[in-house]
């Protein structure tokens, strides 16, 4: 069965890895894959491999309809439009409407765990997008990706330098997974040929609190790391003081609050259900990325 699979956000980190796994792990013919992005010129490497590239701008509904023409299975990777409230949801709704008009048979979407019960600032975007897909009447696969292991590489090098990690997560636990494992699970779902609708929550195999995570970081880096409990307000002020944009600081504070409330303490076997494999544990991830973890002079940021 040679379905045409289109991946939006194909120049982004997740999109690149999804396409990698479609080709390398699940042996999908490159000619059956459409990589779509605002700037197709960034996709020349994929083009060399035989992947079809198309321009897809989420702010251009008519353009999306053209981009999705002849596509059987569409993966909507949530966009990065987080600076303007409501913009991302509008983009996703536009993509779903374009998919319906183009006759797409199956829509896959990257969401987050429990978006209907979340303190995370962007959870309503995900919930609204899921609901728009369900309302479209098109068969769908919703993949709710847990917080990435990779997110820790932003702030941890800075934390290790001072030996202190300021956290508002309290005793809350979180189950994280690598971005690459999320891409593997998404690729598995896309390559499965399923016509059923399903929702998966892709997590690691265990939930850890900040002190357990700090112990792993400290062990791998060979440096002490102490967790300092702060309030949401203190954390937000510290991040703004370090130069992070307000919406990013608010988002990170909301993620800590969500963890503190126990709303990220979700462990499923959906990753194994989709891939037949075990997800990479956090410690193994840090060992693999030790150079980035212990990089001197990296003050976090995005």
From TrEMBL:
It comes from the Bacteria. InterPro entries: NAD(P)-bd_dom_sf, NmrA-like, NmrA-type_oxidoreductase. Gene3D superfamilies: NAD(P)-binding Rossmann-like Domain (3.40.50.720), UDP-galactose 4-epimerase, domain 1 (3.90.25.10). Residues 2-237 form the NmrA-like domain. This is SDR family oxidoreductase.
